[in-house]
Amino acid sequence: MAWIQWVICHADDPAHVLWWENERSSKHGRSTHVPLWLFNENYAVILQKRRNQETDETFYLLVTTYCLKPNRAQSFQKEWEAWGASHP
Predict the structure, then answer these.
(1) pLDDT tens digit sequence for 37-75
(2) Is residue 53 part of a domain?
(3) How many folded domains does the chain comprise?
(4) What pTM was estimated for this model as a whole?
(5) Within a 13 Å sphere around the CA of 20, how many CA atoms are in the beta-carbon half?
(6) In a domain, 85, yes or no
(7) Which residue, 32, 34, 44, is CA-closest to 73?
(8) Enclosing domain of residue 57
(9) Alpha-carbon 48 to chain mean position
(10) Which of 23, 72, 14 minimizes the C-alpha distance to 43?
């Protein structure tokens, strides 16, 4: 559990954590996920971005955490680069 808090608290430090947004579809509709990637350890925290309809404030829900296998780390790298190119 300590890793989760550390990654979230350091999400704004690109020396340790890379993050981006992506759209996901499920049986409940579309949602925005925010992967937080502790790239030196290949550890990921996945958050879901939500909006409070009454206050219009954004908040995040923890979806999952996991260690990345090498092929998934390559996929994360490509997603992060593609998102960064479209969000300068």
Answers:
(1) 999 999 999 999 999 989 999 999 999 999 999 999 999
(2) yes
(3) 1
(4) 0.89
(5) 17
(6) no
(7) 44
(8) 2-79
(9) 8
(10) 72
